[in-house]
User: Which sequence fits this backbone?
């Protein structure tokens, strides 16, 4: 219930956000124009968007999705195919990619969001795999396992964005816009409905909130943003293939949200930054990247289920329930408390 | 051709059925799913492979090694992801097993290398031929072993005191605990057993496909879960039926579409059943 109290925007947060924006704007300067470092910064900005969009599903409404990589992929493939086959400009293909992904997301959401959390995870996972299999086995459209090379970079008023710094700013603007959008949504009527659903579905529906409708809305918006991010990614990296959007991608984004914190705006941003920086900063770790991500996810969930900067909401232990009961005994007493509270 | 596919389907179906039983076992006790099931399968396969390559070519020892590794890692997962997480909503446990799934997969891939290891084949000679369809001894063995396992489980659950305890805890853990049962120990035991079962299946699968690699568990685990949902996750006979049906459907589907879509069929069945009949074919009506 604490999260309801903490909801209204604290006034003193604004300078912090402005400072953060100024800082990220200065990144290319600080990095001294190294292409490699700027590319990493660009990927960070992309993952901030992806993690924030998944947080709409996980943190705001309390559902878990393991299909986010697939939505990202649908966006990337849509934009790439339209740009190459029909020669359309990025500014047309990008919104189309977003809208198409949102439609697919809405469809999947309408179908699966009535399921319980556990089954939703498997449902979205199966969906992700179906998308991957379709991409691999539809060579006339997606070139199958060969991937799509030579995706044209976007241009603004006839001026092609080719250097990594220019691309960094483009994606940065996109990331800031998306995070701001999510921030505004969170503090709107819709956001309050989402949080109410996360905290207590039954209470929310008895207050007249259409639980299912708001869940589908959150899922659709998250997919829209993931699709847009996919389009930006495709035109940035210029080569896409199915394995870039598989299970590992969904898992990585999920870990970012879980590590950084579910249900807050800053949480997924922190998570994305940490998980991209770690393997780059410690090169010897790069080989064990995924091992590390797995271990981090286990550690975070066990020690601090809501993540570094998350809100308790979803993972609030029932009052009086004790953690780490394996040190003691008393299964039934604790289960009873949890069941009583939920 | 049809008969051959059906036979392959039944052999594969035994693998799915055993995995599905594991999912049902955990679901019945904890109302939770262990997402790392596929990685227990993979670790079991690696254990079997190590035994066959370095210790003894005896298949029984390899199967036992898979069983034990599954047991130990399953026990560990129960301690961290389920026992330590009591008092926190269920979803945290699921996410923790997702973490385990990736952790174990990537650890195995760093330890043993990313490339696929080849497993020697056993009993690959044709046992008998029916209408041009060849049945290998291995396929006979797989079905036989699966049936023996199911019978043993049935005996364990319905003829022993331990089985009675497991059933009592699954039915109502509160009453069971009030009756003086060590609920924690029973849960831990059943969870380890489910892990061991999957580890055992992993060795069988490694021999059947002649291959072991770190990512091998992902698809069979989802298929095992599909089989469990297909037959009804609350019921063990349902899990068995689901496993065999899924194996048969998947292999017969190759007749109608390209083999690239083989996994597609299972995933589609999963989504369709989750949507329209979440209680499966034999499951009791509960809200999923």
Assistant:
């Amino acid at each position: 219930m604490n999260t309801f109290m903490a909801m209204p925007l604290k006034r003193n947060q604004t300078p912090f956000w402005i400072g953060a924006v100024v800082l990220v704007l200065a990144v290319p300067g600080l990095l001294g124009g190294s292409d490699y470092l700027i590319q990493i910064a660009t990927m960070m900005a992309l993952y901030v968007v992806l993690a924030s969009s998944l947080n709409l599903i996980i943190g705001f409404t309390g559902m878990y999705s393991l299909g986010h990589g697939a939505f990202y992929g649908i966006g990337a493939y849509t934009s790439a195919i339209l740009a190459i086959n029909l020669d359309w400009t990025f500014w047309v293909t990008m919104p189309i990619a977003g809208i198409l992904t949102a439609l697919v997301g809405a469809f999947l959401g309408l179908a699966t969001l009535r399921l319980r959390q556990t089954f939703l995870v498997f449902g979205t996972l199966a969906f992700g795999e179906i998308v991957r299999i379709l991409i691999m086995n539809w060579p006339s459209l997606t070139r199958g396992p060969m991937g799509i090379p030579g995706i044209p970079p976007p241009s603004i008023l006839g001026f092609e964005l080719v250097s990594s710094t220019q691309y960094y700013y483009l994606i940065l603007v996109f990331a800031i816009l998306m995070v701001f959008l999510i921030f505004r949504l969170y503090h709107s009527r819709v956001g309050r409905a989402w949080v109410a659903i996360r905290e207590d579905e039954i209470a929310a529906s008895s207050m007249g909130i259409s639980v299912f409708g708001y869940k589908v809305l959150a899922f659709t918006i998250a997919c829209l943003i993931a699709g847009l991010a996919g389009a930006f990614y495709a035109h940035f990296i210029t080569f896409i293939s199915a394995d870039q959007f598989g299970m590992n991608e969904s898992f990585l984004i999920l870990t970012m949200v879980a590590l950084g914190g579910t249900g807050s705006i800053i949480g997924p941003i922190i998570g994305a930054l940490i998980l991209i920086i770690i393997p780059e900063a410690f090169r010897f770790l790069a080989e064990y990247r995924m091992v590390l991500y797995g271990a981090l996810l286990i550690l975070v969930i066990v020690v601090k289920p809501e993540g570094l900067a998350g809100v308790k909401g979803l993972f609030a232990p029932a009052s009086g329930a004790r953690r780490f009961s394996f040190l003691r005994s008393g299964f039934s007493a604790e289960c009873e408390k949890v069941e009583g509270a939920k | 051709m049809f008969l051959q596919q059906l036979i392959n389907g039944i052999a594969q179906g035994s693998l799915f059925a055993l995995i599905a039983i594991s999912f049902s076992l955990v679901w019945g006790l904890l109302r939770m799913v262990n997402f790392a099931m596929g990685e227990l399968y993979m670790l079991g396969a690696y254990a079997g492979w190590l035994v066959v390559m370095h210790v003894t070519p005896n298949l029984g020892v390899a199967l036992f090694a898979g069983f034990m590794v599954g047991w130990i890692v399953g026990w560990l997962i129960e301690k961290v992801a389920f026992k330590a997480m009591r008092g926190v909503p269920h979803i945290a446990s699921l996410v923790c097993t997702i973490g385990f799934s990736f952790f174990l997969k990537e650890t195995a891939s760093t330890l043993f290398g990313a490339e696929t290891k080849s497993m020697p084949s056993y009993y690959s000679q044709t046992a008998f031929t029916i209408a041009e369809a060849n049945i290998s001894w291995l396929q006979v063995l797989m079905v036989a072993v699966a049936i023996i396992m199911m019978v043993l489980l049935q005996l364990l659950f319905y003829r022993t005191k331990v089985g009675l305890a497991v059933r009592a805890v699954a039915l109502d853990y509160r009453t069971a605990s009030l009756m003086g049962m060590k609920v924690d120990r029973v849960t831990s035991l059943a969870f380890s057993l489910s892990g061991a079962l999957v580890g055992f299946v992993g060795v069988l699968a490694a021999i059947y496909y002649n291959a072991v690699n770190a990512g091998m568990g992902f698809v069979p685990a989802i298929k095992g879960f599909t089989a469990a949902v297909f037959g009804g996750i609350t019921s063990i006979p349902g899990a068995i039926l689901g496993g065999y049906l899924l194996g048969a459907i998947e292999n017969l589907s190759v007749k109608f579409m390209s083999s690239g879509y083989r996994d597609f069929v299972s995933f589609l069945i999963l989504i369709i059943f989750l949507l329209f009949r979440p209680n499966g074919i034999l499951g009791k009506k509960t809200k999923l």
